[in-house]
Every structure is written in C-alpha cells, then in structure tokens.
Specification:
Layout lengths: L5 H22 L2 H12 L4 E5 L1 H16 L4 E5 H4 L12 E5 L9 H9 L4 E5 L5 H5 L2 E4 L15 H21 L3 H7 L3 H6 L3 H4 L8 E3 L4 H11 L3 E5 L5 E6 H6 L9 H4 L1 E2 L4 E2 L5 H9 L7 E6 L2 E7 H6 L4
Parallel strand pairs: 1-2, 1-3, 3-4, 4-5, 6-7, 10-11
Antiparallel strand pairs: 7-8, 8-9, 11-12
Amino acid sequence: MSDFDAIAVGRRVLAAEAEALIQLSAALDPSFTAAVERLFQARGRIVCTGIGKSGHVARKIAATLASTGSVAMFVHATEASHGDLGMIGADDVILALSKTGETRELADIIAYAKRFSIPLIAMTAQADSALGRAADIRLLLPDAPEAADELNAPTTSTTLQLALGDALAVALLERRGFRPDDFRVFHPGGKLGAMLRTVGDLMHGEDELPLVGLDTPMNTALLVMTEKRWGIVGVTGADGRLLGAITDGDLRRHIDGLMTHTAGEVMTPGPKKTVPPGMLASEALALMSDPPPAVTVLFVVQDARPLGILHVHDILRAGVM
C-alpha cells in the first residue's frame, strides 16, 4: 500500500501559503499606501498586466477592481508588444505582476511606461529586478518558498499576488467611499445582485396602489380592495399621507354593520410596518417576517406618503432570501 497521504500534502500546502500570507501582511509598508493613492488619483484606467500565472492573476485583479468601481482592464504582456500598447493611455496607471521581475515579455510595457511617463506599480518579489528598478512604486512579495518548492511551480507566489490584489481593491473602494448601492450597479445579476436590490427596484407603483380616503364608504373601500387584489387597502388623508390600513382582520372586527362605516372608522391607524424605497429588499423581508405580526404586504412610503406596494412574493421571485 502506498504511503501517500493526500490530506497531509494538502495541509502542508495550505499551511505554507497561510504562513506566507502572514508574512505579507506584516511586511506591508508605506508603499502600499502610495499605491492605493496613485490608483485613486488615476484619471484614466488601471491597466493590469503580466505573463503566465502572473497574467492570470493580473486578469483577476482587473476584474475585481472593475467590479468595485475602478475603471480597470487587463492587457496581456505579449499582446502588448504586438499592438495592444496602443490601448494604454497617458492618464492610465500600470500594475505589472512578475515574481522575478525579469520577465522579458514585460520589457516593452516598461519601456512604454517610461517613454510616456505612465505611472508603473510593480508587484514582485525582487526589488532589484528590471521591473522593480523601473517601477515608481514597488509592492514586494515576501521571500516565501513555493508550496512545491522542489519544482518551483507558481503556487505560494500567485496566492500572495492574488491576496495583495484583493487588499488593493478593498483599500481602494474604502478610500473612494464605495457603498453597497454602488456595488449593486456592477452586480445586477446573480445572488449578490439579488441581495443588493432595493424595495424601490421591486415595488409596484402608484397605479397599483389600493388607496381610499378617510370618508370613503366601506362598500367602495371593499371594491378597491378586491380590484387591486393585495388583501389590504391604505387610507390616506387630504394631504396624501398614509394614516392607516384596512386588512381582513379589520373587516372581521367590524363585520356587524360593516357597510354603515367609513374607511377611517374601520382602519387600523398608522401601519406599523412601512418601508422606504431605498431599503434593501432583504431588510424588508426581515421586517415582514418579524412578529408581531408577520405580514405579506408592505406599503412603500416616503415622507409618510405612499409611493408603491411590495409583496413578499416579489422579494422571493427576485431571489432575495
């Protein structure tokens, strides 16, 4: 039977990479702040570049930056030498990745950056490499062994690059004051997009609102309640403010002589559960579920005036849980 232990290997690799990440965290210095500030001040795009595994990481960093509000793109270092240098403008900032800093395919990008005074940020393990010497700002990776050290295959080094790219992206979004509603603009689809949708995105508008006035006879209020099919009717004052609501429970409590009453006499004053249009749909769902009492419909109000109505099914259909 083989002595090979896959779990032991896996733990060894993860421990080695975790240790390297701790070293990277401890080694962060003012150059990281300078890099974040340079990226923040960029008038153009953040151009991420690299070759091989570093190129794959650079592409991912560009995607992360773009999804968090930075104008970022990936340029393949080899393709740059065959025409794609024209994609890089004078207002851009270049973020170049190379563990050794001696990747020959980066030579043309380095020369181009120098020729047109384009800021160059290097992410490398070698400060005295060609890339390190040419860079305006150096983000140095710790001298940590690769997980498969005897093969020197890029493992730990690419993990460090990836994590440092994430650190840049998060620091940059916080420097910019990026908020969840900004993030939603770049993530309209999928679970993340669903969780960031607002009440205003999902509500039914004014034409579907079941509303009556205080003095509306109950036979008319019942017709509105039936026509709109929400199982509820809102009661408004002369100024358009929402003063109360009539539900099935209110109808049962006033069943004797119901048709002799007005909407204002039957309503429950001041609905306890209303929501503003800017509230996250997930928060509205939590409010609906929070007793007492749990509800399936909420009026959407702003300055106490109803703008729309939201049903729990609207939230669930949007994928919000």
